[in-house]
Amino acid sequence: MATDTTNPSSQQAGLGILKGHTPFVGLTGGIGSGKSAVSDRLAQLGAGIVDTDLIAHQITAPNGVAIPFIEKQFGPEFIDSRGSLDRAKMRSLVFADPEARKALEMITHPLIREETIRQAQRLIEESTPYLVFVVPLLIESGNWLSLLDYLVVVDCPEELQIERVTHRSKLPRNEVERILKAQASRQERIAHADMVIENQGSLDHLQAQVLELHQKILQIQKDRSSSS
Ligand code: ADP
Hints:
By secondary structure, the protein is an alpha/beta fold. It contains eleven helices and five strands. Strands 2-3-1-4-5 form a five-stranded parallel sheet, sandwiched between helices. The protein is globular and about 55 Å long.
């Protein structure tokens, strides 16, 4: 692993070097709030998306770069027959054992950081108008806030989050409730937001808010380039 595993701010230092080229937008929200729905639409509008959740999945998928380290640390029983991380098994372990969670994060976080920086750099080189970092635990991690020019929070009532996630991911209700409890509250997230996208209505209503966001960020970018 090329990145320093002991320095939790190394991703921020790396991204900090890239800052200033183009607006950095953070996109966060609780599980099932609609982050992917928002980022998919922003991508269609031309935004550059760096989805840290997707990266976390890719590095733990078959042939993912984290797999050999996870196997060495936790044993082959945590790798399924396709060569992917056994997510259900690992979820149970890390919920019950904070030390195991730390050990897993020591493996995955530096790899996610490295890939986040690589993707951001590539998008900047492609002259993408602005970057959107999708980070589920953005508020919880603490390091992101100072890096961002604009923070967007996708919000909806918890009951709706539970309904969407049990439907989307086929997770049992108590599992989703457990995940929700481990995340920041809606109020904590909203307190940091420059814009809150309210996603408790139709997808059309969501798209209208996303378009408004897109236009706002393009304006920030325009103001920035005319003042420099
Ligand atoms: P997140 O990325 O925050 O976990 P998703 O964007 O995956 O959430 O949304 C969770 C689920 O809810 C998905 O299946 C998505 O298609 C659905 N969804 C999101 N927003 C809406 C909406 N406004 N109306 C109907 N379904 C929605």
